[in-house]
Amino acid sequence: MSSEELRVLVVDDEELARLRMRSLVGECASPKARVVGEAGNTGQALAWIGANECDLVLLDIHMPGPDGTQLATRLRQLPRPPAIVFVTAHAEHALQAFDLEAVDYLTKPVRRERLQAALQRVVQRLGTRAAEPLASDEAEPVILVNELGRKVRVPVSEVLYLKAELKYVTLRTASHTHVLDDALTDLEQRLGDRFLRIHRNALVARRALRALERRVLPAEGDDEAAEGWVVRVAPVDEWLVVSRRQVAAVKEAIAEGGV
């Protein structure tokens, strides 16, 4: 990220909406930000990102063709994904936005003060991503956790799982639970093969994976309870949901003894 200003890509199918957002970004004094590109749909955005760099994508959800959530999913797969802030008139998508690890969610019409707060969150997220999630502690990598005004160094070897819950990530060890303000995708890239993504919201240390079972999962929202897969995490004996597409990988990791 530039040390002086955020580089912003605005993605919205409405030209007037892009023009207003460009104006609002220019009015934000702290942190400073500059619109370096615009796109009217997902295809244009991917083409722009393929040839340019940005720190942040201000992303509308409802667009012709693949929508903003589909674009966000594609961006998360990049080696160094930009931060995402959704900007939409449809507030019912807020939970899905945080499932996609968006930094923030703005509803139209966007107020300058609210945009500036979102930009400040982006700067914090990008700064943390660049400097804090993993640090070197001689031969043992650690995760730095901000806790009650102090930094706690948690050795990666002690981490059992990381689980995304709305805006935060819960880090679990055998004896403690910590809260991180980092994207799960960023942590996954830095932790490497010792951890397995078992669900869109959870990473588990391979060494901690134990029994895999089918169970009736609790109902969510208006959905009815249904059967699904869960895996036991040792030594805390907690059970985490496994997505269907990851069941085979979890079975393989358990068969290999978690290593």
Description:
It is a single chain. The chain has 259 residues and is an alpha/beta fold. Helices cover 29% and strands 36% of the residues. It contains seven helices and 16 strands. It has helices spanning 15-27, 42-51, 68-76, 94-99, 112-131, 184-191, 247-255; strands at 6-11, 33-39, 56-59, 83-88, 104-107, 135-137, 140-147, 150-155, 159-165, 168-173, 177-180, 195-199, 202-205, 209-217, 226-233, 238-242. Strands 2-1-3-4-5 form a five-stranded parallel β-sheet. A hairpin with a 3-residue loop joins strand 10 and strand 11. The two termini are 35 Å apart. The mean pLDDT is 85.
List keywords for this structure.
259 residues; alpha/beta; five-stranded parallel sheet; five-stranded antiparallel sheet; 29% helix; 36% strand
Largest sheet: 5 strands, parallel
User: Mean pLDDT score, rounded?
Assistant: 85
Strand order of the largest sheet: 2-1-3-4-5
Helix content: 25-40%
Strand content: 35-45%
Shape: globular
Structural class: alpha/beta
- Ends distance: 35 Å
How many DSSP H or I helices? 7
> Could you list the spans in which at least 5 consecutive residues all have pLDDT below 50?
none
DSSP, total strands = 16
SSE order, as H and E?
EHEHEHEHEHEEEEEEHEEEEEH
Sequence-ordered SSE layout with sheet pairings:
Blueprint: E1 6-11, H1 15-27, E2 33-39, H2 42-51, E3 56-59, H3 68-76, E4 83-88, H4 94-99, E5 104-107, H5 112-131, E6 135-137, E7 140-147, E8 150-155, E9 159-165, E10 168-173, E11 177-180, H6 184-191, E12 195-199, E13 202-205, E14 209-217, E15 226-233, E16 238-242, H7 247-255
Parallel strand pairs: 1-2, 1-3, 3-4, 4-5
Antiparallel strand pairs: 6-7, 7-8, 9-10, 9-13, 10-11, 12-13, 14-15, 15-16
